[in-house]
Amino acid sequence: MGGAMTGVVNKFFIASLCLLTTPIAVLYSFQSNLFPGSSGMSPEAMTLWSGIVAVISVNVVIGFYIYMAIKEPSGKHEPDPKFLADAKASMKQSSLDRAKQE
């Protein structure tokens, strides 16, 4: 169980890191004229296009994260038996408490 959870945490950490660094890298690239054709733009146009490309890059990272989550095998996620037993006992207790109140 620990290995599966480690994989999930690693994927989440990598996606979070990409969500932070990708738009910053895009904005820096535009301001440093690393994109072809960006050197001839006015400062306003450069700011506009760098913002648009940064937003698109964030959406691409989110899309990849969703894709990885969908492709993950669903058979390896088994609910914890103790958690299920505790949840059923809690549901049964709350329904008994409601019946007593009526």
Automatic annotation (TrEMBL):
Keyword Membrane: yes
Transmembrane annotation, as ranges: 12-31, 46-67
Record-linked InterPro entries: Vma21
Membrane topology, from the record: Multi-pass membrane protein
General function of this protein: Required for the assembly of the V0 complex of the vacuolar ATPase (V-ATPase) in the endoplasmic reticulum.
HAMAP family, A to Z: VMA21
Family statement: Belongs to the VMA21 family.
Compartments where found: Endoplasmic reticulum membrane; Endoplasmic reticulum-Golgi intermediate compartment membrane; Cytoplasmic vesicle, COPII-coated vesicle membrane
Source organism, top-level taxon: Eukaryota
Protein name as annotated: Vacuolar ATPase assembly integral membrane protein VMA21 homolog
A GO CC annotation given for this chain: endoplasmic reticulum membrane
Keyword Repeat: no
Pfam families reported in the protein's UniProt record: VMA21
Keywords: Cytoplasmic vesicle, Endoplasmic reticulum, Membrane, Transmembrane, Transmembrane helix
Biological processes annotated in GO: vacuolar proton-transporting V-type ATPase complex assembly
